Amino acid sequence: MREVAITGIGSTLFGRHPEQDIQGLAIEAAQSALDRAGLDRREIGALYLGNFIAGPLTGQEVLAGIVGDKIGLSNVPCTKVEGACASGGIAFRHAVMAVQSGLCDAAIAVGVEKMTQASRKDATNALLCARDNREDGESGLTFPGLFGRAWKAYEARYGITREEVAAVSIKNKANGLKNPLAQLGANLTLDVIKQSPMIADPVQLYDCCPTSDGAAAVVVTTRDRARNAPDLAIDVLASVQTRGAPHLAGHPDLTSFDATVSAAQRAYAMAGVSAGDLDFVELHDCFSIAEIVDAEDLGVLPRGQGGKWTLEGRTAVGGTIPINPSGGLLAKGHPVGATGVAQIYEAVLQLRGQHANQVRNAGLGLTHNLGGVGVACTVNILRRPDAR
Amino acid sequence: MREVAITGIGSTLFGRHPEQDIQGLAIEAAQSALDRAGLDRREIGALYLGNFIAGPLTGQEVLAGIVGDKIGLSNVPCTKVEGACASGGIAFRHAVMAVQSGLCDAAIAVGVEKMTQASRKDATNALLCARDNREDGESGLTFPGLFGRAWKAYEARYGITREEVAAVSIKNKANGLKNPLAQLGANLTLDVIKQSPMIADPVQLYDCCPTSDGAAAVVVTTRDRARNAPDLAIDVLASVQTRGAPHLAGHPDLTSFDATVSAAQRAYAMAGVSAGDLDFVELHDCFSIAEIVDAEDLGVLPRGQGGKWTLEGRTAVGGTIPINPSGGLLAKGHPVGATGVAQIYEAVLQLRGQHANQVRNAGLGLTHNLGGVGVACTVNILRRPDAR
Question: pTM (2 decimals)?
Answer without folding.
Answer: 0.98
